[in-house]
């Protein structure tokens, strides 16, 4: 078995290293990706498909086990369905936005980090009678913001699935203060979208996959909240802290379970699938099913959170 350095870039350039018991010893405790990663889209690379096929032939490999999120596995789907490249996908993204699985590797750890941040902001918000705005990752879906906001007792959660009216948010915060609550926590996903005509956002640049490079929405929302409410407001952008550190127990078990399942299916020649979690069981879905549409936060979760927005 070989590992390719820096994601699709390593496959295109045939940059490999042997993976055996010695080279993989102790990686269970390590966060991130030990092989490195890149933002390379193999479909848009010159002769990308031919180079991938040649790499498999040169190293006499039966296929690829591709570990990644929506962008990585969408490219895998195209390579598998349209070009016959043998691929098995493993869902790894803190966004938890892939279909065919309840949870993706990395999501649980990111939620732990984000919830800890909400908890810590509570103490400074309460002691200084402030509104604290916490920006979390979530380009098109609000899984991290919803889970961390609910677990941390946030007073408002803004996510891409539901456009927000900043005027209504401010009225809600003023009502809380009018009822004697001297502080509030607002959790916002980086991809949260304001209702049409309520406030403007900057034009974001796009990456190699055509996706907007987001970040900084809290720096727009925070001053507006302070202007409308008159309450001192502070902004925290957690950023890549959510992606680092040691994985928690849930992600370690999930990674081990899905990794073993991927190996079993590779040994049996079951290509063109993604392994995933369904309840307590490991299951499979086609790469098409996994990437056909983003898995969004169900509406009942927002209704659950709304109960606690006192």
Automatic annotation (TrEMBL):
Compartment(s) where it occurs, according to its Swiss-Prot or TrEMBL record: Cytoplasm
Pathway: Carbohydrate degradation; glycolysis; D-glyceraldehyde 3-phosphate and glycerone phosphate from D-glucose: step 3/4
Enzyme class label: transferase
Any one Pfam family match given in the protein's UniProt record, by short name: PFK
One of the GO BP terms on file: fructose 6-phosphate metabolic process
Residue intervals of the Phosphofructokinase domain: 1-265
PROSITE patterns registered for this protein in UniProt: PHOSPHOFRUCTOKINASE
GO molecular function: 6-phosphofructokinase activity; AMP binding; ATP binding; fructose-6-phosphate binding; identical protein binding; metal ion binding; monosaccharide binding
UniProt superkingdom: Bacteria
Entry GO terms, CC: 6-phosphofructokinase complex
This enzyme's EC code(s): 2.7.1.11
CC cofactor: Mg(2+)
InterPro entries: ATP_PFK (IPR022953), ATP_PFK_prok-type (IPR012003), Phosphofructokinase_CS (IPR015912), Phosphofructokinase_dom (IPR000023), PKF_sf (IPR035966)
Listed SUPFAM superfamilies: Phosphofructokinase (SSF53784)
Swiss-Prot/TrEMBL keywords: Cytoplasm, Glycolysis, Kinase, Magnesium, Metal-binding, Transferase
Keyword Magnesium: yes
Major localization listed first in the record, in broad terms: cytoplasm
Family membership: Belongs to the phosphofructokinase type A (PFKA) family.
Alphabetized NCBIfam families for the sequence: PRK03202.1
Listed name of the protein: 6-phosphofructokinase
Species: Euzebya pacifica
